[in-house]
Amino acid sequence: MDRLGATASLVAGGVAGVSVDLILFPLDTIKTRLQSPQGFKKAGGFRGIYAGVPSTAIGSFPNAAAFFITYESVKCFLHTDSSSNLKPVKHMLAASTGEVVACLIRVPSEVVKQRAQVSASSRTFKIFSGILCEEGIKGLYRGYKSTVLREALWSWRQDHVLDSWQSAVCGAFAGGFAAAVTTPLDVAKTRIMLAKAGSSTASGNVLSALHGVWRTQGLPGLFAGVFPRMAAISLGGFIFLGAYDQTRSLLLELGTESP
């Protein structure tokens, strides 16, 4: 990827990511509280739905930018003929690699954000420093495996071969379906991130977390928060993909025109 393309991907991915995360943050808070072990009301209900937003605001831009820079770079590295049957595989590999890299930034931000969402009275920095004091850096990466697994399973939807409007619509439908299917993994991720230090769930075992939810709450527990999750990701897919394509195209056009 040339320098102009890399810069365009960085800025477009970051701007789109920040916009989506901040606009749809209330839906994410509702979803997290529905999935929390203490239940929706005890986790805060509809109060303080912007609790944890500083963590998202700080982590969103570098997270989204890291994904798209990696995504575009891997696509260039795995260059294939536009008519090749391997093109979908190339996009899947590029998106999956992008998620692995982006999660290095996303997971610490997510851990702090989710703990703030279920304890709205606590400040974000206090939660962050508390995790570092009690668990160290390892505590900030609790749930990394479950997050990567969840994201990689539907990373195939990142394919910017259509115009921005078509990409946005396709992203919305694909994202909504994928959100529903991967909700159990999202529930496991939430339980792992919110678990008390030293508990069996805090160890990060996805199957163990899923089994615990199944044992205590059954199928409804595994799909807790599915509707706000579907709504957020469908709207997010529409906004993100459309905004990314439009912003990147504009930046490339401006860069080409400038002397």
UniProtKB/TrEMBL annotation:
<dbReference type="InterPro" id="IPR018108">
    <property type="entry name" value="MCP_transmembrane"/>
</dbReference>
<dbReference type="Pfam" id="PF00153">
    <property type="entry name" value="Mito_carr"/>
</dbReference>
<keyword id="KW-0813">Transport</keyword>
<keyword id="KW-0472">Membrane</keyword>
<protein>
    <recommendedName>
        <fullName>Mitochondrial S-adenosylmethionine carrier protein</fullName>
    </recommendedName>
</protein>
<dbReference type="InterPro" id="IPR023395">
    <property type="entry name" value="MCP_dom_sf"/>
</dbReference>
<keyword id="KW-0812">Transmembrane</keyword>
<comment type="similarity">
    <text>Belongs to the mitochondrial carrier (TC 2.A.29) family.</text>
</comment>
<feature type="repeat" description="Solcar">
    <location>
        <begin position="162"/>
        <end position="250"/>
    </location>
</feature>
<keyword id="KW-0677">Repeat</keyword>
<feature type="repeat" description="Solcar">
    <location>
        <begin position="4"/>
        <end position="77"/>
    </location>
</feature>
<keyword id="KW-1133">Transmembrane helix</keyword>
<comment type="function">
    <text>Mitochondrial S-adenosyl-L-methionine/S-adenosyl-L-homocysteine antiporter. Mediates the exchange of cytosolic S-adenosyl-L-methionine, the predominant methyl-group donor for macromolecule methylation processes, for mitochondrial S-adenosylhomocysteine(SAH), a by-product of methylation reactions.</text>
</comment>
